[in-house]
Amino acid sequence: MDILESVKMATTTLLANKLRSSLTMLGIIIGNASVIAMIGIGEGAKTLATKQFESLGPNTLFIIPGSPEGRGRVTSIPRTLVLQDAKAIAKQVRAVKEVAPEINNRTTINYRNRNATTTVIGTTASYPILRTLEIKNGRFFNDFDIKRSKTVAVLGPDLANKLFDNQNPVGQKIRIQNTTFQVIGLTVAKGSSFGNNNDDTAYIPINTMFSRLVGRTSPFGINVSLISVSAKDENSISAAEFQMTNLLRRRHKIVREDDFTIRTQKNLLEITNTITGALTIMLAAIASISLFVGGIGIMNIMLVSVTERTQEIGLRKAIGATQEDILLQFMIEAVILSIAGGVIGIALGGGSILLVGIFSPLQATISPSAVILAASVSGGIGLFFGVVPARRAAQLDPMVALRTA
Question: Which of 283, 325, 377, 389 is a good FRET partner for 192, with 20 to 30 A between their CA atoms?
Fold first, then answer.
């Protein structure tokens, strides 16, 4: 019997029991759909993280209070990143182009009978340059506003809509913690980055933030939440990191562990890719368990099928079919079930990726390598788990089989 004839016979047999064939493929379908969806979503997360890092501004470095080893746990080293550090970097580090310290605080903003709880960032005039923030109406505050600690604010579009509906907020007065601020600017919509909605944020001069809202000081000066720095160009990033590290270590009189952390866009992207890659592998591994379970399901159903078709096997052997013919037919049935389940699973996984792209910011993609991997694994599972029932069918004695039936 040739292979084409065996494929035709196997297909006819499987189509004659559509419900059982569909249930047999269920595990393979779920496994393949999960693998395709998990890998696609993982790739989408990487793409989204890359875009968000790029939106932070070119050649940007971030200085964060706290030691690299101490972040995320209690450390005995005090956090001493202060406003004067930012001024020293701007003045003494030659590889640096722009410096923008910031103090973040979450609070409630009021306008007449409306209020909105949001993030208020106290920063300097360099902030829009560093973070590629554009102004739609009005202006951003300047060095004069900061020096005079003026009570002026720039709003993101989402925050402006919450307080003013569709009215132009420029020129209006809002209240932040019982202090009246005049809105002088409205930013262009930029979206979220790392959990912070840039469009739902208010920006005020850093001196005003310190004197009117938070007043965070330490024996070393005014504490800041973060210092953003842009290097002069891409080739200056390493030099800027080295020079800033030396300067801060001298200023903080550090002899052992640093009390600050410097991250570059490349560092942050590598960390994010490592995390998302590990999560993708873990989720794909969990999804692969469904493939294994599906393979066991195929083997069990095929074993039942061998028992039910004992008479058929005996008759075929009695009229001249060889062990290889019987083995080939049952192996082909198992492979057809696996491949058909794999194709349906890949289609469902692709559909789920499209839905994720529609209802979330993740632009998940269907990876060709994932499709090839899923299809290959499906075929392999059919071969692997089809061996046992096919061998059992092939080794049946025709006389015993006919007598048993």
Answer: 283
Kind of pairing between the strands at 152-155 and 179-187: parallel
Q: Which of 108, 156, 151 is nearest to 141 (CA)?
A: 151
- Max alpha carbon distance in the chain (Å)? 104
Asked whether 117 and 106 are in contact (CB, 8 A), the reply is yes
Q: Would strands 173-176 and 179-187 be described as parallel, antiparallel, or unpaired?
A: antiparallel
AA letter at 177: Q
Burial label for 273, CB within 10 Å (0-12, 13-18, 19+), is middle
* Alpha helical stretches, state H, 17-134: 18-55, 83-92, 127-130
| pTM as predicted | 0.66
CA distance 204 to 182: 10
Instruction: Work out the burial of residue 255: count CB atoms within 10 Å of its CB; fewer than 13 is exposed, 13-18 middle, 19 or more buried.
Output: exposed
